[in-house]
Write a structure and sequence with these properties.
Elements: E1 4-5, E2 9-12, H1 19-27, H2 41-53, E3 59-65, E4 75-81, E5 88-94, H3 103-117, E6 123-129, H4 133-141, E7 145-152, E8 155-163
Antiparallel strand pairs: 1-2, 2-3, 3-4, 4-5, 6-8, 7-8
Helix pairs in contact: 1-2
Length: about 170
């Protein structure tokens, strides 16, 4: 799987050196606030192990700052199966210390470009809680449009979609 670069970040497949950051993402109350709450330590470790091992069904990139790569994993961007299994989903998480800097937008844009230009995916979805205004703004800045609303996990969820501009238009 390709490593991706942005002006400030390096995105690489998760490795053993990313475990602590992946566990921090999975156990952080603020990160997991709209994702069902923090995971227990055992579940977080299992999730980190699965990400490091890789999956034939998902592509994952651990995010590091280019000028502070020794600081470790600060975020995660994934293209994987969506709950409805109709289209692949773009999802992301970043540690709160890195929120509000445009890093999530920068990294999700890089993965979106890779998904369309290199992987030739025709469409992607992203799902977020309707109450998660910051995530909704980010998805809209990526060019995603609201496709539908569903009730899932005890809350209203908005499913966003984006089409690959390079894909042929279907009638």
């Amino acid at each position: 799987m390709a490593s991706l670069f942005t002006s400030r970040c390096l995105l690489q497949p998760p490795g053993e050196h990313d475990r602590d950051g992946l566990i921090a993402l999975a156990t952080d109350l603020t990160v997991r606030g709209f994702l069902g709450g923090p995971r227990e330590d055992t579940a977080a470790m299992a999730s980190a192990d699965a990400l490091v091992a890789g999956s034939p069904h998902s592509l994952a990139w651990a995010v590091r700052l280019r000028d502070q790569s020794e600081a470790g994993c600060i975020g995660l961007v994934v293209i994987g199966p969506h709950h409805d299994d109709r289209l692949p989903e773009l999802s992301y998480q970043f540690l709160p210390a890195y929120w509000g800097r445009g890093l999530a937008l920068e990294c999700t844009e890089a993965v979106l470009r890779h998904a369309f230009d290199s992987l030739s995916l025709p469409r992607l979805v992203s799902e977020t809680q309707a109450a998660n205004r910051a995530s909704r703004r980010l998805l809209e800045r990526l060019g995603m449009r609201k496709a539908r609303t569903v009730e899932r996990f005890g809350a209203a969820q908005i499913i966003y979609e984006i089409a690959n501009p390079l894909s042929p238009v279907r009638p």
